[in-house]
Amino acid sequence: MEPNSQPNSTQDWPTRAWNLLCKLRDQSPLVQCITNFVSMDLMANTLLSAGASPAMIHSIEEIPDFTPHARSLCINVGTFSLNRLPAMKAAAELATKFGKPWVLDPVAAGASGFRLNACLELVGMKPTVIRGNGSEIIALSKASLGASKGVDSSHESIDAIEAAKSLAQASGAIVAVSGAVDIITDGNRVVGAHNGVPMMQKITATGCAVTALIAAFVAVDPLHALEATASALSIFGIAGELGMKMAKGPASLRMHLIDSLYGLDQSALLSHTKITSL
Question: Which SUPFAM superfamilies match (predicted)?
Answer without folding.
Answer: Ribokinase-like
